[in-house]
Amino acid sequence: MAGEGENKPVLEMVQADGADEGCVTFVLHDEDHTLGNSVRYMIMKTVDVDFCGYTITHPSESKINFRIQTRGGIPATEPLRRGLNELNDVCQHVLNTFQARVNEFKESQGQPME
Amino acid sequence: MAASMSNVEEIRSRVILGEYSITNVHTSDYPGNYPGYDDTWDMQKFQKNFRIDIVHLDESSMEFDMVGIDAAIANAFRRILLAEVPTMAIEKVFIYNNTSIVQDEVLAHRLGLVPIKADPRLFEYRSAGEESAEEEGSEIDTIQLQLKIKCRRNPRASKDSADPRELYLNHMVYSRDITWVPIGNQADVFADAVIGPVHDDILIAQLRPGQELDVIMHCVKGVGKDHAKFSPVATASYRLLPDITLLEPVEGEKAERLKRCFSRGVIDIQDVDGKKVAKVVNSRLDTCSREFLRHDDLKNAVKLGRLRDHFIFTVESTGILPPDVLVTEAIKVLMVKCQRFLNKLDSTDLE
């Protein structure tokens, strides 16, 4: 699916012949457990997802095979998109909370850092 | 029924450290796993339960609690801190002269590991493909450093001295001898920032009279997964909060013994009606050594576990960036990863 003129693919979609669009293996290039496991967690928290898991193809290849199987004919891209969005929102909340707490802590210490 | 419900609650919230096994290791609160529980992702619920408490923070290290998040995401932050938050490090060493006993390649490797105080957010990555074409590097992606030093005899040394510190000048080459050579407009842009090694007392080489070093170094932006020298942390780790429950009252001599089974400060002995009774006061201090399991009369009185969603993070910076900045950068890195794939999903109709 990588567009023309792009030498480095980011995301590919692999489907078995005849499989519906609810059963897809996504190939996430340049990723590992860091994104793989956290997105897998977010996607497994969705009701319509039958199966979600990932493998690292080989230690010397920097890509993961990310498998999603959905229920009820929902395209697999949907939970993937939702999982990524939710993970992004979670990060945003963690970031806001962290920065608020750090500022509070610095104020309570009374020593302006940086 | 009530008993099994409380058992389910335990499976969901705790990792149990038993005598021969560790159980309930994996997260299991997925939709459909537990009847009567709604485990679908709920942002409101997450925001309500999530909290961060800063325990300690200084220029080089910090400790904080992150509560109410899954290990998958907490671990992503930890992994990113170690391997994917960028820093500047010496990548190329041009050796014009090296007459010391340290071989060129060993010297280059040692220099690479010296932490360089420069804000990586103000620099770009050097483009990988055109390396040969762009040997020089430019002001936006490269910091140039110089190390030029020569060892001489100290003319003022006393005749009968045998101490190298008195006999020679410059015989120890430290990181403080590395000087910054600004490229382009860097001298103006970084006028108020001192660019150079974080620590000035890192020994790089030892020289003897007549030996000299003359090298130019290029620092580039990189990440820890490419080479450990780019890692911004000395260490970044988390542990789960220990949870110690006394299942039955432990009194008298047994209480004293139980207290000694745990780290200092975990168990306190209180006086209840003239009897010494053990009480858990601070389970956080425990190392989970499980020493109490060696005492047959104590091992059934204690339940030891860890709270599944309470992460005690420890981040030690190398000194390039303060630890709180490193954590915020790590969170941003994960968001960028999400964005990267979201953009890809939106821009192309995957077929």
TrEMBL record, chain A:
Residue ranges occupied by any DNA-directed RNA polymerase RBP11-like dimerisation domain in the UniProt entry: 23-96
SUPFAM superfamilies: RBP11-like subunits of RNA polymerase
Pfam family membership, one: RNA_pol_L_2
CDD domains: RNAP_I_III_AC19 (cd07029)
Subcellular localization, as worded in the UniProt entry: Nucleus
A biological-process GO annotation: transcription by RNA polymerase III
Alphabetized UniProt keyword annotations: DNA-directed RNA polymerase, Nucleus, Transcription
Primary site of residence: nucleus
Entry GO CC: RNA polymerase I complex; RNA polymerase III complex
Protein name, per record: DNA-directed RNA polymerases I and III subunit RPAC2
Organism: Zoarces viviparus
Automatic annotation (TrEMBL), chain B:
Top-level taxonomic group: Eukaryota
Key word Transmembrane helix present: no
Subcellular location: Cytoplasm, Cytosol; Nucleus
MF (Gene Ontology): DNA binding; DNA-directed RNA polymerase activity; protein dimerization activity
A Pfam family this chain is assigned to: RNA_pol_L
Primary location class: cytoplasm
GO biological process: DNA-templated transcription
GO cellular component, one term: RNA polymerase III complex
Keyword line: Acetylation, Cytoplasm, DNA-directed RNA polymerase, Nucleus, Transcription
Domain DNA-directed RNA polymerase RpoA/D/Rpb3-type: 61-344
InterPro entries membership: DNA-dir_RNA_pol_30-40kDasu_CS, DNA-dir_RNA_pol_insert, DNA-dir_RNA_pol_RpoA/D/Rpb3, RBP11-like, RNAP_Rpo3/Rpb3/RPAC1, RNAPI/III_AC40, RNApol_insert_sf, Rpo3/RPB3_RNA_Pol_subunit
Transmembrane segments: none
Role of this protein: DNA-dependent RNA polymerase catalyzes the transcription of DNA into RNA using the four ribonucleoside triphosphates as substrates. Common component of RNA polymerases I and III which synthesize ribosomal RNA precursors and short non-coding RNAs including 5S rRNA, snRNAs, tRNAs and miRNAs, respectively. POLR1C/RPAC1 is part of the polymerase core and may function as a clamp element that moves to open and close the cleft.
Family: Belongs to the archaeal Rpo3/eukaryotic RPB3 RNA polymerase subunit family.
Stored NCBIfam families: PRK00783.1 (NF001988)
Name of this protein: DNA-directed RNA polymerases I and III subunit RPAC1
Source species taxonomy: Eukaryota, Metazoa, Chordata, Craniata, Vertebrata
